[in-house]
Amino acid sequence: MLIGLDVGGTFTDAVLIDKGAVVRKIKFPTYPEDLFKSLMNALEPILETVANRSIQRIVTSTTLITNMIATNNVDPVGLVLIPGPGRNPSTYNFEVPHTFVLSGAINYRGKEIDSLKDSEIISCIEQVKQAGLRRVAIVGKFSQRNKTHEQTVANLFAKHCPDIRLVLGHQVSSQLNFPRRVVTSLLTLATQDKFRDFYDQLSTALSQHGIDAPLYILKADGGTLPFEQAVRRPVETIFSGPAASTLGVLALTPAGQTSVVLDVGGTTTDLALILSGRPLLASRGARIEQRLTQVRAFSTKSVALGGDSMLRVDNGNLQILPRRAGPAYCLGGPEPTPTDAMRYSGLTDIGDAQRASEAMKLLGGTLDLSPDKAASLVLDQMVKRITGEIQAMFLAWEEEPAYRIWELLQKQKVRPQNIVGIGGSAPAILPLLGQATGCRTLAPEHHEVANAIGAALARVTLRLTFHFDTERNYYFIEETGLQEKLSGQLSSLADAEQFSISSIKQAGEQLGIAPLAEPELVYSEMFNMVRGWQTTGRLYDVCVQFPPGIQENWTEGAEHHA
């Protein structure tokens, strides 16, 4: 049996899946100030159902990290940079009051070209002490290719102030792009403690119920990560909600389908894209507000527009605001909302019809319109806003390399013509969206808990990018920060590919990926190193992965996947 949990902005959902089918589903309101309570309200009825029966695993998607960053409810962090030559460090603005820049440099191949100055490091440590900082991120340019400078600074910090928590840039991400690695390191350290508290609470609660099933959390790229590992890198779980909705649509629609994913919640509407059965990944990493990170993520967008959005009238003009005052009026809330307009228009049976009518009368009074026309105006504005967001996202999606490749394979310029709606408000708004866009629309069975289904069924994924330097007889892995000498010589690109595939299989088994699962080659490239008109070595770049998706043993609605 599998349990999937999704802590959304308005509702927390839980599903129990047994023998490839949903056997129970639960929805409870989310308490933003207490996500743990929200999660346990949804989980406990599921645990009562399973009693002493075997649970294979529990997977959670949560807004915890997203909310922490959006509300700036993160721990203060000091920043130590070793940027080397190039861009002036003063042009970086990481919005960190206590930022220190050190001398020293590593070049792009991992060779030291300028040494550190101990006096600068000691001075930095003293200033960190005086500022009372308890957490420091140390990030050097090209540290992913030689970690010695970061490690040297960390060793001195450990010697002079051992109580300070440290994160090193090469441990968080080993991909190129110094500013993104800095942002990713900062957010990792700033969210660790609160994420650990959440994990400890959840682990204790499960233990009290006698549950010892493996506990996973959904990552932004649709893969799962054991909770104890996520504690070290909680920023990987940013946007796990949109990832869950994307995987939920994969599970509930025909295999190989190409669709726009539309997750209409009470607080937000999330957009994503599936191309021929594969979610589109963001090539530049997750964007958190205006800051790019190196967190691998689906190409998604969260729009502050939902069924519970506040409605305001300004100078006779209706506005749908990007926030909520509580539940819809028809559900006992304080103000009219789009959900009330849907209920009044007969598009949904959610909530009390009489209160929905009262809500539209109130709104119509401020607009000098009848309740019918007030409801129509609300729905028209909501549809126009969502349609505009879909069109804007296509402009962004079409810039993604994976989209361009998919488009070439279609042999014509074409956009997906399916919109798959999930979430409580999806069935109500989909017909109107279909009329406005000319697209086919679908709200599949279990659409209201699709995110929890997506979390439950998510595969364990892994992506590793290897960089080999045969002249130095050395390699490093971007995602893990591993930097080691080669035990033997690589004589060809095929050797490098085989080494990479063998390595990811070993790493996959440690994560619980089935031994028979086959990784795929994402890309491989070779560059000659030439000195004095002679080839002195080669650089090989190889990327391999176990791709995201849903577990193969999902059978419910098998006709969809035939």
Detail the topology: elements first, then pairings.
Blueprint: E1 2-7, E2 11-18, E3 21-29, H1 35-50, E4 57-62, H2 64-70, E5 78-82, E6 99-101, E7 105-106, E8 112-114, H3 118-131, E9 135-140, H4 148-160, E10 165-168, H5 169-172, H6 178-208, E11 215-218, E12 224-226, H7 227-230, H8 240-252, E13 259-264, E14 269-275, E15 278-279, E16 287-288, E17 291-292, E18 301-303, E19 309-314, E20 317-324, H9 338-344, H10 353-367, H11 371-397, H12 401-410, E21 418-422, H13 426-437, E22 440-442, H14 450-457, E23 462-469, E24 474-477, E25 483-485, H15 493-511, E26 520-531, E27 534-546
Parallel strand pairs: 1-4, 4-11, 5-6, 5-9, 9-10, 13-21, 21-22
Antiparallel strand pairs: 1-2, 2-3, 7-8, 11-12, 13-14, 14-15, 14-18, 16-17, 19-20, 23-24, 23-27, 24-25, 26-27
Account of the protein in words:
α9 crosses α10 (about 355-365) and α11 (about 370-395) packs across α13. Among the domains are: about 80-190; about 305-445, no CATH class; about 460-545, no CATH class. The protein is globular, with a radius of gyration of 25 Å. The longest helix is centred in the middle third of the chain and has 31 residues, at about 180-210. The two termini are about 25 Å apart. It is built from 15 helices and 27 strands. The protein is of the alpha/beta class and about 550 residues long. Strands 3-2-1-4-11-12 form a 6-stranded mixed beta sheet, with helices on both faces. Strands 13, 14, 15, 18, 21 and 22 form a 6-stranded mixed beta sheet that branches.
